[in-house]
Amino acid sequence: MIYSIDFSRKAFKEFEEIGAPYYTKIIQGISGLATNPRPHGCKN
Predict the structure, then answer these.
(1) What is the pTM of this model?
(2) Cα 22–chain centre separation
(3) What is the DSSP string of 9-43?
(4) Predicted local confidence at residue 21, as pLDDT
(5) Domain-wise residue ranges, the chain
């Protein structure tokens, strides 16, 4: 099952302020939650 992830406009503005190396890792991590919402190491 694939989930959808929606961001508010404010969240997108916050992402724009983050530097490139961090921005990419954060977006990859969040996007990964669409296919695996409970990755190894997460707490319920």
Answers:
(1) 0.64
(2) 11
(3) HHHHHHHHTS-HHHHHHHHHHHHHTTT-SS-TT--
(4) 86
(5) 1-44
